[in-house]
Design a protein that fits this description.
- It is built from ten helices and no strands.
- By secondary structure, the chain is mainly α.
- Helix 3 packs antiparallel against helix 10 and helix 4 packs across helix 8.
- 37% of the residues are buried.
């Protein structure tokens, strides 16, 4: 899938540049709604294309950020107005109920910090957006924090793709490693929270 979208994005350099930006926007939006889409990889690649032309880096960042924000808020409203009913119907099969429960625990512990960090939590963005909506957290602060998170993350990986040029795939490798590290950190955090909960229960007995 990554190769398909990379080839598609590269072909947009042969047509008016606005179509390239439109595709960047669409992919950034789609990644938040259908998480198997390799959105970060394509943003890095767009940064590389901006380095060699005819795309330029600031529109790439702007369109990617806007797509990410709208995608996040789309899932937010789906969670807000669909919520448990959609989970029970399995209409959103790519949102496991156990992942939603995990994010519920994060929100209980960290609150809006989870929203602010969502773009940096690889593999959890869609679940976070949906769960935040399902919890009916106010749309304005959620939208502002999601926008900040998207802007910082997209700028970072676009600039990396722009700077490394032909070696943009190295950034993709680093992102994959980063995702694995984040997964381990999240697992250790949850294990620690479980340990503390068990200790509290034993102390009460």
């Amino acid at each position: 899938m990554e190769q398909f979208f990379a080839e598609l994005l590269e072909k947009t350099t042969e047509v008016p540049v606005i179509w390239g930006y439109t595709l960047v926007f669409f992919i950034a939006w789609l990644e938040n709604v259908f998480p198997p889409i390799p959105g970060d990889v394509l943003v890095v690649f767009a940064g590389y294309l901006a380095a060699i032309g005819p795309m330029t880096i600031f529109p790439v960042i702007a369109f990617s950020t806007l797509g990410g924000i709208l995608g996040f808020m789309c899932m937010y409203y789906i969670g807000r107005y669909g919520g448990p009913r959609l989970l029970e119907s399995r209409a959103l099969r790519w949102l496991p109920s156990e992942s939603v429960s995990r994010v519920q625990n994060w929100l209980h512990t960290w609150g809006y910090t989870v929203v602010a960090a969502n773009r940096f939590l690889s593999g959890a963005r869609t679940v976070i957006a949906f769960t935040v909506g399902m919890n009916r957290m106010p749309a304005l602060p959620v939208g502002l924090l999601a926008s900040l998170s998207a802007a910082v993350w997209v700028t970072l990986i676009t600039v990396l793709g722009y700077v490394v040029g032909d070696e943009w795939e190295r950034v993709v490798d680093y992102l994959a490693r980063y995702g694995r590290v984040i997964s381990v950190v999240i697992f250790l955090f949850l294990a620690w929270q479980l340990y503390k909960a068990i200790r509290r229960i034993r102390q009460k007995v």
